[in-house]
Amino acid sequence: MKLSDLAEILPVESAASGERIVEGITSDSRAVCPGFVFAALRGGKSDGMAFAPDAAARGAIAVIAALDADAPGLGIPVLKSADPRRALALAAARFHGRQPETMVAVTGTSGKTSVAVFVRQIWARAGMQAASVGTTGVVAPGRTEYGSLTTPDPVALHALLAELADAGVTHCSMEASSHGLDQRRLDGVRLAAGAFTNLGRDHMDYHPTIEDYHRAKMRLFEDLLPKGAPAVIFADDAWSQPTIDAAAKAGLDVRTVGRKGTFLTLKRVEHERRRQRAEIEAEGTIHEILLPLAGDFQISNALVAAGLAISTGVPAGDALRALEHLEGAPGRLDLVGSTGAGAPVYVDYAHKPEALENVLSSVRPFTTGRVVVVFGCGGDRDRGKRPIMGEIATRLADVVIVTDDNPRSEVPAEIRAEILTAAPGAIEIGDRREAIRKGVGMLAGGDTLIVAGKGHEEGQTVGTVTHHFSDHEEVRNALAELAR
Ligand SMILES: CC(=O)N[C@H]1[C@@H](OP(=O)(O)OP(=O)(O)OC[C@H]2O[C@@H](n3ccc(=O)[nH]c3=O)[C@H](O)[C@@H]2O)O[C@H](CO)[C@@H](O)[C@@H]1O[C@H](C)C(=O)N[C@@H](C)C(=O)N[C@H](CCC(=O)O)C(=O)O
Ligand SMILES: Nc1ncnc2c1ncn2[C@@H]1O[C@H](COP(=O)(O)OP(=O)(O)OP(=O)(O)O)[C@@H](O)[C@H]1O
Ligand SMILES: N[C@H](CCC[C@H](N)C(=O)O)C(=O)O
Ligand SMILES: [Mg+2]
């Protein structure tokens, strides 16, 4: 690609530099190699423009910068944009070129990972070459990789999408986090359809108000999906209506799913311990489905996923039948094992209030004894959620064990103390391994243990060091010890 190929996105004026070959694009000066375009972004910590001289010294051929950026004497063209993050995303898409033909994205506070992996499974069952990209990583035919970000930065994202397309993937589902949407990480993705699950308290350290948080999510419908594209919206959430309004105003084809949904209507649901039977109406026909997953919320996620699959060409009957074969995303109400007396132990990724509320409520109907929960809250993240989660745990569980979950740069005992202000009577055990042992050790027949907050994670971050830690492994070890 030549620099002049970016002319639709950026003011590439000088003909001489326009002929230069672009060897790569990055927003990190440390990754610049000769021939790269460097995007100088203003971030939470620093202004990328401060690193432009370094990028130029490493051989950058142009810098993408804000309109008001001050760029004296860099010796390379400065391409100014009113929205440098968007320009970077569009440039990365142009540079890497190929993407799977059918891309869909799902946003919402909870359920994104589940929906993305469900859509992949439904497509795959319908015979498509399908992939999913999100919090738990990348899964595609012959490829499974552990992830880090929910929505990768645009440079990594477009490199990945090009690789997937080259490997023959035609259908790809991805998660659109509010950070990702706000930071324009998805702006270069050619989306065929989008979806919304729900909205609750999250990332209040990043978004000033919940309205601002909702607005960031609405970029998916307002700015990213082409007019007329299907927008699959879960209908039974408090934020469903404002979302439907935003999607309709943006000229999208709104398709609601859920009890109040009209595209897929949930008529009836009967919960069993590890599965649920649902009657779903689609195009005037009632389908009875046995969903092999625990948790009320999984029905909602399955409906959103089916809505996306149908909206991208899977016949409704096939999509709904495929729900009978769904496997949950790793670490989402994941049954790891049971004690000798039959008390189940689940690992779940609930690390925000509504998720914790949902998961604890979901297991109550099948618990004849006590619901025991082990959880903590992450450091360097929204502090406001700590007492809220303490209150929810105290209200919905019989035994609450408060422990550590990635304290990062904070003092772990202070995080626990903030949770404990609203969790009187809770047991405090900082060491997560000990906390899990304690939880497992106290289980009697009829009890249920939920180890919440880390789900698929494989590390515990203390300070800047991430130690290997897996709730799955710890639960398995504790159960094995008990059996000895
Ligand atoms: C808070 C946040 O979202 N930060 C993201 C943001 O960083 P930033 O712009 O604030 O970075 P900064 O440190 O101020 O630096 C500004 C710029 O200078 C550049 N720089 C910096 C140093 C240097 O030597 N040279 C250089 O060029 C940086 O690369 C950056 O472009 O933009 C970066 C580039 O896209 C992201 O990598 C980074 O994500 C960090 C890694 C992160 O942890 N993000 C998390 C919070 C996140 O995005 N999570 C969401 C949601 C998860 C969920 O739903 O729960 C996700 O999608 O994963
Ligand atoms: N539809 C839903 N409604 C409420 N809670 C849910 C829903 N789906 C999942 N959860 C809860 O949220 C947790 C995370 O689910 P999932 O990973 O699918 O969501 P996510 O939106 O991708 O979350 P994150 O933004 O943290 O990656 C689950 O472990 C469960 O506790
Ligand atoms: N993507 C989320 C995951 C949080 C998971 C929880 N284990 C924590 O560390 O708070 C975040 O980084 O805020
Ligand atoms: Mg996720």
TrEMBL record:
> What are its E.C. numbers?
6.3.2.13
Cofactor needs:
Mg(2+)
Please list the GO terms describing molecular function.
ATP binding; magnesium ion binding; UDP-N-acetylmuramoylalanyl-D-glutamate-2,6-diaminopimelate ligase activity
Renumbered to this chain, motif Meso-diaminopimelate recognition motif spans: 405-408
Its annotated compartments are:
Cytoplasm
Domain Mur ligase central intervals: 106-309
Q: May I have one GO cellular component term?
A: cytoplasm
Q: Which InterPro entries match?
A: Mur-like_cat_sf, Mur_ligase_C, Mur_ligase_C_dom_sf, Mur_ligase_cen, Mur_ligase_N, MurE/MurF_N, UDP-N-AcMur-Glu-dNH2Pim_ligase
One of the GO BP terms on file:
cell wall organization
Top enzyme class of this protein?
Answer: ligase
- Domain Mur ligase N-terminal catalytic: residue ranges: 22-95
Binding sites annotated in the UniProt record for UDP-N-acetyl-alpha-D-muramoyl-L-alanyl-D-glutamate: 29, 150-151, 177, 183, 185
Please give the chief subcellular localization of this protein. Answer: cytoplasm
Q: Which UniProt keywords apply?
A: ATP-binding, Cell cycle, Cell division, Cell shape, Cell wall biogenesis/degradation, Cytoplasm, Ligase, Magnesium, Nucleotide-binding, Peptidoglycan synthesis
Q: Which residues bind ATP?
A: 108-114
Question: What role does this protein play?
Answer: Catalyzes the addition of meso-diaminopimelic acid to the nucleotide precursor UDP-N-acetylmuramoyl-L-alanyl-D-glutamate (UMAG) in the biosynthesis of bacterial cell-wall peptidoglycan.
Q: Write out the similarity annotation.
A: Belongs to the MurCDEF family. MurE subfamily.
State the protein's name.
UDP-N-acetylmuramoyl-L-alanyl-D-glutamate--2,6-diaminopimelate ligase
Q: Which organism is it from?
A: Aquibium oceanicum
Upper classification of the organism: Bacteria, Pseudomonadati, Pseudomonadota, Alphaproteobacteria, Hyphomicrobiales
